[in-house]
Prior knowledge:
By secondary structure, this protein is mostly helical. The chain has helices at 42-62, 68-79, 85-92, 96-108, 130-150, 156-175, and strands spanning 112-116, 124-128. Strands 1-2 form a two-stranded antiparallel ribbon. It starts with 41 loop residues before the first helix and ends with a helix.
Amino acid sequence: MEDQIAVPAPTTPAARPARADGHDGRSTRSDNIRLAGLEGIVGLHLGIGHSLLVQRLDPKLKALGLTAKQVTIMWLVEANPDITQIEIGRFLAIERSTIHQFTRSLLKNGMIEVVQSETDGRSSRIELTGKGRDSLARARKVIVAHEAENTAQLTPIERRLLLDLLFKLGGAMTSG
């Protein structure tokens, strides 16, 4: 059938690297639910994984007065001193109006400042303020701990493979 999605065969414990805790890494969240092919839907599992990670991270960042998107924007600004809102939006695959909402909020809270280009009056870049740098440093610590906690069941090789595959999927989605 054309509308059937190829479902990968379950990975047997013999084919997977042995783990010290004897757990094969599979979730028991769906043990009593028939998936009927849903186990092969990548987008579904990315969405569920994203939702679970965000549910766990949001309260930790909220305690700092930030959202995950705001932290990501500040992180990108720090790493790319000449970055524009348009470039950030393109990288994050979000609409121009949405990126403006995030930057307005960061601006209002004193985390960033918008600096007009000296050569092109229509262009501007974003810079972190001292408060933004301090907040980003605190948020990074929260995120590093959150990542360690939520990927602890992965071996370092599995974690690297997951990141490589996500980058590959992200590149494929933005290029075509």
